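Input/output pair, single chain:
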Amino acid sequence: MSLKEHLHHPLQLFFIAVLACSAHGVERNAPPQIIIQWDNDLLTGTDDGYTNGMRIAYARELSPDGKNFNRLQDFLKTLTGATGESPVGQWQFPEPEIERIQYGIGLTQLMFTPETPATIAPPQGERPYAGWLGLEFSLQANAGHSASTATLSVGTTGRHSYAEDNQQWVHRNVSDSPIFQGWDSQAPSELTVNLHFDHKQRLRFFDDTRDWPLQLDGFYAWGAALGNFRTDAYLGTLIRAGYNLPANHTTPRVQLGSFTDTLFAKGVRGAEPLSIYGFVGARGYGVLHDITLDGPIFRDWGESVDSKPWVGELSFGVAARWQTVEVSLSHTLRSQEFDHQRNRSRFGSVMLRAEIAF
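Output:
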């Protein structure tokens, strides 16, 4: 069976979800967006650990009043804190009014392999085989300098993630790389359900730079995930510097729970068609469970390893925007993720975001 046939059903589900997204509460004046993100360690000269991540996503603005939201959109909006019904929500959104609601659907595949391709089981100190394929339903609320996102992801590990099929097809037909022999030892199939929370707050002390020839801005972020795929919490920041910084920010790599673009200072920047800038960011994670390392909750897995409770990462890259199309290239370095890990993960990322009219 070809790769095209393997991915036929997941793509069908994605496009059905996109059609459902388009049918509820759409803000007609705002064009939808297509976001494509690709992570791969070959971009940094390696071929192990977090070896590949791919996402195609569709995002569209909804009417902020929420009158035509479906039940899932109402549920996700409540989780963002945008309803203002809790003290936490009032702290996240000190502005008096929600300015923008954006809903998105993403189809994502993640792939993890050891460094050594020839062995049936991963050697000591190398990452076990694992794959994940899932749909993500995300809603983001923006108000002034604040943005909060809630995402529900539903997916599966194991052979129905099609990670093995994808890697073997690419290695045979595109990269001419060695074929990995140990996929029979991958994390077994388990249905995963996860909630992801993400909040970004613009760093206000950069406001005075908006009239400079070269501009500077940034934000700090925190978030958490809860579910049998991954349970963790994080704290991080990102700084951008360049010419005509766009008012919005899109996560430059595949990060579960975050793919819609975050809008800051609407109308202040981005009036000119061209933007060129660089960025650098850092994050620290507290990890309680990672199915690709610790294994499934409801099944035994002999190849599982013990995940590290604390993980840090550094990312940097460059990006360019022309009118409604933006492209970025970035590099991520990550600390050890499990006990006795021999090689630390590093990977490159490519992101394409475009507004489309249809």
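The radius of gyration is 20 Å. The first helix runs from residue 3 to 6.
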